[in-house]
Design brief:
ATP-grasp-modified RiPP, GRASP_targ, 2 strands
């Protein structure tokens, strides 16, 4: 038996995305190339809406 939803599922196009920040596991923050905290960059926040990382999933089991 095949699930109903699988009849209509369409593969998602994968896009190559590069974020202008990297995750620092010691600080548990996303940092820009110049060392500033990514969340403090208002222009970046307007453009991307948010910064995301895996910090929550590494530190909290209920995420």
């Amino acid at each position: 038996m095949q699930l109903f939803a699988l009849n209509y599922a369409v593969p998602v196009e994968e896009f190559e995305v590069s974020a202008p920040y990297t995750y620092d596991s010691a600080l548990q923050l996303n940092l820009l190339a110049n060392g500033r905290i990514a969340a403090h960059d208002a222009a970046l926040m307007r453009e991307l809406g948010a910064t995301t990382s895996t910090a929550g999933s590494k530190t909290h089991f209920d995420d």
